[in-house]
Amino acid sequence: MAEPNKNRSLYDIPADLTALEDLLVECGGDVSDELAAAAIERWMADLSTDLSTKADNYAALIRTLEARAATRKAEAERMRDRARVDENAAKGLKTRLMEAMRAINVAKVEGDRFTVAVQRNGGRPALVFSDDADIESAPEWAFETVTSRRWATDAIRSRITEGEDIGFASIAIPGFGLRIR
């Protein structure tokens, strides 16, 4: 009987146990030969030791990976918090610079590295519905039905743009933003 290989992987151990079982079946379960019995006992002891050592090493690796994952999660959260602080600081500084430029009526400042400009926000202005706007009592032209009744924003915007006072909605005045190029 061959000596167990000390370099077996954890997955080899069940295969070795199956080989041992096959050997016992071949011998008809007779292990009366002292050499065979000693070899089988040694093999079983080695397998048991290998399994114990490998399982212990796996457990150590698992704990190491879990600890590393927890540390990395904590660090990621810390970095997210720091990024949030930076974003808030940048937003606040941008607002203050824009307000200062608007207060002294300066639309554009060119520096050595950047050009800073206060510009009106682009895109279609938002529709602003009055607090008492109710889709159920709105005129038929002001809603569309898909699966449920909803505002027909294009129709509403069109009528307001044409100068009609519809009473329940208006077009918002576009805001300003600071552009850094």
Can you give a write-up of this model?
By secondary structure, the protein is α+β, with helices and mostly antiparallel strands. It folds into 2 domains: 1-105; 115-180, no CATH class. The protein is 52% helix and 14% strand. The chain contains 3 helices and 7 strands; from the N terminus they run H-H-E-E-E-E-E-H-E-E. The strands form 3 sheets. A 3-stranded antiparallel β-sheet has the order 1-2-7, with helices on one face. The longest helix has 70 residues, at 34-103. The protein starts with 11 loop residues before the first helix and ends with a strand. The model has no long low-confidence stretch (mean pLDDT 83).
Topology:
Layout: H1 12-26, H2 34-103, E1 108-110, E2 115-120, E3 127-129, E4 143-145, E5 149-151, H3 153-161, E6 169-171, E7 176-180
Antiparallel strand pairs: 1-2, 2-7, 3-6, 4-5
Helix pairs in contact: 1-2
Short description, anyone?
The protein is 52% helix and 14% strand. It is built from 3 helices and 7 strands, in the order ααβββββαββ. The mean pLDDT is 83.
Which band does the percent of strand residues land in? 5-15%
Integer count of domains: 2
C-alpha-based Rg, rounded: 39 Å
Low-confidence stretches: none
Order of SSEs: HHEEEEEHEE
Structural class: alpha+beta
Task: Kindly report the spatial arrangement of strands forming the biggest sheet.
Answer: 1-2-7
The tally of beta strands, per DSSP, is: 7
**Nearest-integer average pLDDT:** 83
Helix content: 40-55%
Distance between the termini: 79 Å
Shape: elongated
Count of DSSP-assigned helices: 3
Largest sheet: 3 strands, antiparallel
